[in-house]
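QA checklist item 7 of 12: single-chain prediction sanity check.
[x] sequence parsed
[x] length recorded as 121
[x] structure emitted
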Amino acid sequence: MKALLVLMACLPTAALADIECTIARQCGGGTCEAFTGGPMLLHDAGDGAWEVSLGGQIYQGYLAADVPEGGELAIMIPPQAGMSGLVSVFPAGEAAFTAHALGNGEVIAITGAGTCSGVGG
């Protein structure tokens, strides 16, 4: 389950170029646990593209929704390295994500939650 989370991310507020997210917990298979994968770094690559870095790997995503009036920013992670996902960042910096994959012949769904803050931009 942890290897799958390595690519999930949390995403930015529209005004920030770089974001650092801390995922507090992850849940999957009916259990929840502390996330130990380190910080997730998010970078606005321009033209709606986003880079999500974790554990020395960079995943490509794109802006799916940006609701400026108190809404969320949503980043889709298309299928890469055997998984796909969605990251949402809410106005106060709360973050949530889901990751979907096939593992050992069965569907795996993982969720997580934490917070994000700007690191630049």
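[x] summary fact logged: Confidence is low (pLDDT under 50) at residues 1-16.
[ ] second reviewer sign-off
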